[in-house]
Predict the 3D structure of the following.
Amino acid sequence: MCQIAFSIPDEVLFDTKMNYEQARQFARRAVALGYYTQSGVSIGYCSQIAGMTEEFIK
């Protein structure tokens, strides 16, 4: 399994009123949706990336 790390400035979290966990989940969903719509990765794999059931795409 691959892990990707990136930094989100505290100011962005403040401006979006997100905490660390909300920002992490948002990023996972965005990556999963991007893989699904742009790269043709299966909905099953994308749901695993997003940490959700397959219903998140529908």
